[in-house]
Here is the input.
Amino acid sequence: MKNSTIRILSVFLVLQLLMVFSCFPGNDCGPFDDIFYKVSQIQAINIDKTNSTDIHLQQWPDSSNVLLDHFAIAIVVEPDYFTSIKPRFHNPFLHEALACSPPSPEPVESISGIEIVSNADFITHNGDTIPAGFPLNALFKTAKTLREGFPPQPLSAYLQSNEAVPTDGTASDFLFLTQASAINQFHRFTVTYSLDNGNTFSATTNSIGIY
Here is the structure.
């Protein structure tokens, strides 16, 4: 009985060691520190949504005149990364040590508000006027992706959802205008991005006409 127990334990030990060394050599297999990020700055970019992807953004040149269906604003977050500071006990027999890729960075902030204004009066085709500097939120919807199957939602609904967190490494949010302005109107949109810790960031797009 004793010999059988020893054999079972020996086989288990060998299997565990094989699992550990099946990862890349060196120090590439964890355990890894938890990685977090916070927003350091944002950009607001007028993009051609029909020729952009979530990662590769096709920016409209300054003073472009574009169709409503081709227009979106991409909010790009510039993050600061940091790791947790806590003691780590490296035990090769724990599952944590068998991971060969570090964890994806996690946000530490949530988005509490997004406001969009223009430097010019926004006049719709039905004659409504929203003065320069007044919020245009009611005219915009938002989505986390340009991919089909993920319809934009009103800003108010988005901000109350668990999706309202900054996204690192690519466009964090896309803003879609739902009504065109009158022809020959050009706008520079300023986006203010508020976080739940009280920090706010603003960015302004280049000039664009939308019809």
